[in-house]
Amino acid sequence: MRIDLEPRPKASRTREIVAPVAALLVAILIGGLVVKLLGKPPLQAFRVYFIDPLTEGWSLQELAVKASPLVLIAVGLSFCFRANLWNIGAEGQFIAGGLFGGWLGIVTHGGSGGAWILPAMLLLGALGGLLYAMLPAVLKIWLGVSEILTSLMLVYVAQLGLDYMVRGPWRDPMGFNFPVTVNFDADATLPLLVEGGRLHAGVAVTLAVLAVAALVLSRTLFGFEVRLVGDAPKAARFAGFSDRRLTVTVFAISGACAGLAGISEVAGQIGQLQPSISPGYGFTAITVAFLGRLSPFGILIAGLVLALTYIGGEAAQVALKLPLDMTMAFQGILLMCVLGADVFTRYRIRLVGRSG
Amino acid sequence: MSPETIELVLISVVTAATPLILAAIGELVVERAGVLNLGVEGMMIVGAAIGFAAAYTTDSTLLGALAGMAAGVLLSAIFAILAVFMATNQVATGLALTILGVGLSGLAGAAFVGLKRDGATALDLPGLSHLPYVGKLIFGEDLFVYCAVGLVAAVGYFLSRTRLGLTLRAVGDNHASAHALGVSVRRVRLIAVLFGGGCAGLAGAYLSLAYTPFWSPGMTAGRGWIALALVVFSSWKPWRCLAGAILFGGATTLQLHAQAFGFPVPAQFMSALPYLATIVALVLLSILDRRGTAAPAALGQPFVPDR
Amino acid sequence: MTPSGPTAPADSADRQPAPAAATGTIPLVAVRNIVKRFGGFTANDHISMEFMAGEVHALLGENGAGKSTLVKILYGLLEPTEGDIFFDGEKVRLASPEEARARGIGMVFQHFSLFENLTVSENIALVLPRTEGLDRLPQRIDEIAQRYGIVLEPDRPVWTLSAGERQRIEITRCLLQDPRLLILDEPTSVLTPQEADTLFATLERLKQEGRALLYISHRLEEVKRLCDRATILRMGKVVATCDPKLESARSLAALMVGAQIKEVKAAVAHPIGGARLEIRDLTLPSAEVHGTALKRISMAVRGGEILGIAGIAGNGQSELFAALSGETKASAQTIVLDGKEVGALGVTARRQSNAAFVPEERNGHAAAPDLSLSENVILSRHATGGLARYGFLRRAAARTLAKTIIRTFDVRTASADPKARTLSGGNLQKFVVGREILREPSVFVVNQPTWGVDAAAAAAIRQAIVDLAARGAAVAVISQDLDELFEISDRIAVIHHGALSPARAARETSREEIGLLMGGADGQHAH
């Protein structure tokens, strides 16, 4: 038995849209199987994960709030991935952004305040993520060190750094010895977009960045360069584009987006720094980027789908005693299905029997 | 520091290095065949969870080890279907495998959190294991350790002296040429990937059966990634892999012993040492091996044969 | 050849070969009605051929005619969609190269199937049948060396070897299996004329031993010299079978192409100006792992002339091209365009100084396969065609420019703005060359302008190059095809191991002389 892959001569828009949808459906089926193996009712799990969160107003807002960092990070990642640069340290850049921007929130705590604080925090957050992403980028262009390994190692370093800061120098002295910082003042917190709800301005920031990214990718020379490098790196050099400059730029973009997501989460959802400020957004964003086929609009939809699994996962933990690990396992299954489905858009697959 | 203390420190270096050796030697074979499997961390942690679960349920360390290996093989089979047979992007597929593995390990190990059992039995040769200063270090380790060293020797011999090893190296050098000569590239890669999965699973099982005889979520703590770095650092040569693992193992234990010796450095910094050391090691390697000649030439490139 | 034509086995497809009076006339290998389809494309269309022992049978046809496909079927790499293969009169099925080798079919590939990082003996060991132990290998290699005069160094890694040496490994690999039919796919494309002579001597030896040889080539003089029979393929079908010694190169070419080929018209007399492209003492290490360093290269190309740079692949051509285009930077004074020192500048700056470049690899380097033609125009023209303003792309302008290129250079496309990968080799090459020539550059550098391109497109490309020079541009053509270089160059230089010989006037030199320089000019024998 042999699997034969025949390249398809023409790309088909229909196939490119159907593929991720089909992948999602297959992943749900496999996920259901796993749920069954764990001894829980699959249909009910499906309802709790995917249907219930969509039916209540508060949870729709929650959906947007959870999707916002995913989409923001994934948009930044898409620039890297399109250029075949594997930044898997977005989680670390997220944390770095939270630290940099959070610092301003801490030092201005209890002071006179001012409208400048919040924008400055956001900028610092983006800067923090950007600088942290420069480490793997620079090592790659100067020494050719694999960005996969360096960016990932730095995630662990960032997590430990955050842990140290909130347990040590930045711990709230009036916080009953809990490992958290002071709560940020009102001026250092993202305002709500809807009164009495959960929708904070971070969502608006994400949407703005998304729009800019879409414009850049399709209309600018730089966007052209990013699309070209992934398809034909030698042609990119022939076009006069410097691969070093591109590496630094896309890592900067990706780091800035992740850092911005980090400070948005800290200044919006959490309101202070604590040892864990991310339930793995930096890694889930990788799945979001692929599910969205590395395009801004696709990433928006994919981010909402994966945010749904987060919310559904939390609900399932309460309702069905299904561990949160199920969400992570599902994300892995989904990413695999997406990658497999992508093969179908480029090749026709045939199983050939031994007789030929 | 007395000789006994030195011996203890060395033993802890060896035990810290063992999971790295097991995982890295498996991945080394996979990469020599031209495939990059970033899912080592995922396979390793599943091996740890399933290994402990099986060992606890059957009260047999051996069965636990075998179960851990089998879990690694099964997960790597999924990777093989996607990356080898369907030619998906190897980086992304490996990441997916890690995400899946970490999630599955939590699910599989949930029922066994907090449970304990006896660790793997150490070798006890009359006379030899009781030699002063070196007895326990060389003749008193548990079977996993000897297995790791044996695997390194076996892989080294296999790659350089056997026909199949030559074929595997050829596939990793130029899969198109290998195909043109009639070698079944995909079959060779499948076997390599499964071998790597078994090794990673065994490495994980070692963690929950011998290193610390219990399961706790996330217990691999990035060792799978360090093993990947180790393969690069060893320039894809088996014996260098062993040496590198000892160095990394040393960095890992350093933090534990430094706390014991009361160094005035924050605990988090000590915990970060292995990860920082990995980056430093990769940087040093790049400086010394500027041209990057060592990597298998076809590493990471998808292969689609025409028929 | 009589106008009624040579024998056409395609007609006699259903008849079994008739036993003749002479000895051994059951063909060693025969193929009947072979059809091979890839999706909608028919590469081989009812092909029938016979290969007799002790005979050298040429398979002629231009690029894309189906030669490589047929030969891969014979070697078990592909399975025919329809049709049969006969060995010694008996029908067989070749499901893998191992089976083909077991039956006695050996193949020397055009693009060698060698493993750069393994040694010579490791490369050879890979094709030994599994039953044979590796320990007998050195002895066996020695036997072959003695019998055929092939010299090999067993422990050297392949990446250190020249093309001729690599080919010897390929041939030794085949001979170890004692093949009864030996297939050679364009063997001389990477050899100097002297090395080719050595090869022919070896082939003669094999022929005398009673083996059958299948010789694929598009070099007609060679075929006439070496081969006893020739089958000509065109568009997947057999169009003729003949005795090449009785034909002229021209008649064979006409059969291959099916029409009279347009010869390149010599340029009208035009003045040769001053030097417009100069390289001054350029020394550059290679960026590639197994690349060739450039050593003290100096050359000057004047306005209105074409400088041909001959050389076998792997002697620094890509490195030279990259240094000229600016993809690799050097010291400022080493490269001079119209008097301006540009050595330290990048590609875009050099294009802005009115230079244009066409690299060797059209799919992946000159053009991005998954981008449309209009986007591929942006690729090399974004700074010089007004296609980007304040960082924003001007897509409509790019599309218009693409249309102009397609029209002027007769590029055949399936739709208005298709992806580059959908074009055939010849059409994509015309597009890529046309994209640059349409700029009317004052300096034009091209690497392998007609490699793998059908004859009609090749002639058109060569004509465009000649006409460009006639308009005053300085043109440098790097090529492995000596015929092409002698056809269009005013002067010819040779690149060997990264060093460039002084240029000679094309009229005053000969293929032999150039061939010697290609081989390193240390004596008459090839090594």
Q: Which SSEs are present, and which pair or pack?
A:
The complex is a heterotrimer of chains A (356), B (307) and C (527).
Chain A: E1 2-7, H1 13-37, H2 42-55, H3 57-82, H4 90-107, H5 117-143, H6 147-167, H7 202-219, H8 221-231, H9 233-238, H10 243-270, H11 281-291, H12 296-319, H13 325-346, E2 347-352
Antiparallel strand pairs in A: 1-2
Helix pairs in contact in A: 1-2, 1-13, 2-12, 3-7, 3-8, 3-10, 3-11, 3-12, 4-5, 4-6, 4-10, 4-11, 5-6, 5-10, 7-8, 11-12, 11-13, 12-13
Chain B: H1 3-32, H2 40-58, H3 61-85, H4 90-109, H5 135-139, H6 143-161, H7 163-173, H8 175-180, H9 185-211, H10 223-233, H11 238-261, H12 267-288
Chain C: E1 29-38, E2 41-51, E3 56-60, H1 67-74, E4 82-87, E5 90-92, H2 97-103, E6 105-108, H3 120-125, H4 137-148, H5 163-175, E7 181-185, H6 193-208, E8 212-217, H7 220-226, E9 229-234, E10 237-242, H8 249-257, E11 275-284, E12 294-302, E13 306-310, H9 317-325, E14 335-337, E15 340-341, H10 347-352, E16 355-358, H11 373-381, E17 388-389, E18 392-393, H12 395-408, H13 425-437, E19 443-447, H14 455-470, E20 474-479, H15 482-488, E21 491-496, E22 499-500, E23 504-505, H16 511-518
Parallel strand pairs in C: 3-8, 3-9, 6-7, 7-8, 13-20, 13-21, 16-19, 19-20
Antiparallel strand pairs in C: 1-2, 1-4, 4-5, 9-10, 11-12, 11-14, 14-15, 17-18, 21-22, 21-23
Helix pairs in contact in C: 11-12, 13-14
